[in-house]
Design goal:
Number of strands: 9
Largest sheet: 5 strands, mixed
Number of helices: 1
Structural class: mainly beta
CATH architecture: Sandwich
Order of helices and strands: HEEEEEEEEE
CATH topology: Protocatechuate 3,4-Dioxygenase, subunit A
Distance between the termini: 39 Å
Shape: globular
CATH superfamily: Aromatic compound dioxygenase
Radius of gyration: 16 Å
Helix content: under 10%
Length: about 190
């Protein structure tokens, strides 16, 4: 009998294929549509003041904020030569729909590990904005035995992007609409 996890795996695979097809890519999504040999590493950014260590392992953040706009956040972790990284740590934390962080617990905070193909995904919500910051996610990414990459991911076409002092266009998500929310993709390239 299919479980929620099987459903999410199928949804992620379907969305990745739709994005590739819409972009004119072959029907079978390649592992690394944006990766070129010796591609630049993903840019590091500040972790900000709201990081909490020792987050739980989880993929479902959406149940932490049932009133938020649903978002599947997914992608791959790759090496500089475009090889997928299995068992890479992906840690995510972000504000709720009103722009507030949970600083006393682990609401909208957690981590997971990439699968054998280097794929990762979270079922979450679209974060709200707060003074001086555009809409964003915070992440830490670490391949087994590698150093920790701390970074942030941003939404395209956000009015506050131009005024955010640390916004970086190389960290824009590829966002598309789904039947029940949004789908955002980003492939991390790590050392």
């Amino acid at each position: 009998m299919p479980t929620r996890r099987h459903f999410l795996i199928a949804l992620v695979a379907t969305q990745l294929s739709r994005i590739a097809h819409a972009a004119g890519a072959p029907a079978q999504l390649s592992l690394t549509p944006t990766c070129d040999h010796d591609d630049d590493l993903t840019s590091a950014q500040t972790e900000g003041p709201y990081f909490t260590p020792a987050s739980p392992e989880k993929q479902d953040f959406a149940s932490d904020a049932p009133d938020g706009e649903k978002m599947i956040l997914a992608g791959y972790v790759l090496t500089e030569d475009c090889q997928p990284v299995a068992k890479a740590l992906i840690e995510l934390w972000h504000a709720d729909e009103s722009g507030t962080y949970d600083n006393s617990g682990y609401k909208l905070r957690g981590h997971q590990f990439t699968d054998g193909d280097g794929k990762w995904w979270f079922e979450t919500i679209v974060p709200g904005t707060y003074p001086s910051r555009t809409r964003h996610y915070h992440l830490k990414v670490q391949r087994p035995g590698g150093s920790v990459l701390t970074t942030q991911l941003y939404f395209p076409d956000e009015p506050l992007n131009a005024r955010d002092r640390i916004f970086n266009a190389s960290l824009l998500l590829d966002v598309s609409a789904t039947g029940d929310g949004k789908f955002g993709r980003y492939d991390f390239i790590v050392a």
